[in-house]
Amino acid sequence: MAENIMKETDTVKFVQEMIKNSEKCIDDKGAYKCGELYEAEVKEENRMPAAIFFDEKTYNYHLFPYDKENLSGSVDRMKKIAEEVEKVRDEVIKQLNTSDRVCVNKEKFEQSREDDEDDKIFVSADIKEDNNDKKVQYGSGANGDIRKLGKTFYKEANHLYRYIAARKKGVLYELNFMRFFINTEKKVNCILKAIQFDRALYKTVNCGKDGKFDIAYPTSYESQSKEKLKKLQQIKRKDKSFCYNPAVSFYYNSEDKEGTVDNAKLIAEAFIDFIDACDPKTTYIAHKSILSPVCSNQYYLKLNRAAQSLEVYEQADNNTLRELYPLREDFDTSDYVLFTLKKAIPCMFGGEDRMRTPAGIFRIEHVSGLHEEYVSPYHPQHEQVKFFGYLAVFEDYFIHSNMYLKDATSGTFQAKEPVSEQDAHTSGCIRVPQEELDWLVANIPEKSIIEM
């Protein structure tokens, strides 16, 4: 321990005074008193002696292991829990990074605003390659420190409250590895190594619109289903922050303490579902008369020229129409098909005059095989070029990716430089990144509608 770090006896005195000040602050604010602290589950054998730090600036509760008769034991337990949380948190970030809905980038997280056109979720972290190993570098929630414990005997273990921060259209969402709840005695309790999500509309999750204390913790520690999430009244209240207990566990299961990595995918997927439920996706409604019986209605594509993106809408449950719009009870929704935005793919399209991309409503006439070769005569500097994989829209107008010289093959093109890299526009086709094209080829059926 460094010389400026408090010894055990001094730390005990410091924590006792901190508890006293926190309890007074709670009384002054009219807040809920401190309850119990558990590890993983609400069981008597999992309950541990605890101290509280109530932050009067953020209105956040911080419960942490504290046994004044065995402070070293409390610190060791806290350090072990913090290390387990860090391991799971890194794996969840890596899983989030595999989703086409998520952008793991600290800078873009900070830049996210309400008027974002993209439907992306931005996470406050970066992933760096280090000798073929992926290292996570965090922004918000990096350390998880309880600031009052910074120079105490707890210093080396003081990373208990690490979390993952994300934004969608400027709204802050947090994935926490501890679960707070209010019991019937109106006390705030906490389960460490348990998953809880929150939507924080203001400074912090327990801060209201007017800057005053407005507690957001749920009244139960029980998990809530995905179906229950959609019905929560808190989601519909756009003026209040709230917390949600997803039906996913910190461990893969309670018997398999080594299963944390396997469970990261489930946690990441549940977090994305939570964010989407709080911010319903952009919708598009089409009358069945527009959708020919021979067309597939699973997807609806739309070229958004202003945003320079190809939007992919996925067919949704028509019952959602009544949740989204105040429709008459006798209105027949069966004549309509509801689509929700699945992804917005950055794209390039035609220029002026005879190089324009056609405007209208079309259907996908043909979908190629993965990396299927196509020879095109449409390039201003080359007699013939190739691209690999495509969706045919209208005559010789395609959705495709980069173009290569004619010596490229389906087995070699990815190692070659595309000739279209510096193009400012296409000759009329819609050009998307190769990985996005591969997704379109694998998922978009022929006869799907595309509006351009």
Would you kindly provide a written description of the structure presented here, covering whatever features stand out?
22% of the residues lie in helices and 28% in strands. It folds into two domains: 8-278, no CATH class; 283-451, L,D-transpeptidase catalytic domain-like. It has eight helices and 24 strands. The protein has 452 residues and is of the alpha+beta class. Strands 1, 2, 5, 6, 9, 10, 11 and 12 form an eight-stranded mixed β-sheet that branches. It is elongated and about 80 Å long.
Total domains, how many?
2
Mean pLDDT reading: 86
Structural class: alpha+beta
Strand content: 25-35%
**Helical segment count:** 8
Total strands: the figure is 24
Question: Could you give the topology of this structure?
Answer:
Elements: H1 8-29, E1 33-39, E2 47-48, E3 50-54, E4 61-65, H2 71-97, E5 102-104, H3 106-111, E6 121-123, E7 125-130, E8 133-138, E9 163-168, E10 171-182, E11 187-200, H4 226-231, H5 233-236, E12 242-244, H6 260-278, E13 283-287, E14 299-304, E15 309-315, H7 320-324, E16 336-346, E17 361-363, E18 366-367, E19 373-376, E20 385-388, E21 390-394, E22 397-400, E23 430-431, H8 434-443, E24 449-451
Helix pairs in contact: 2-6
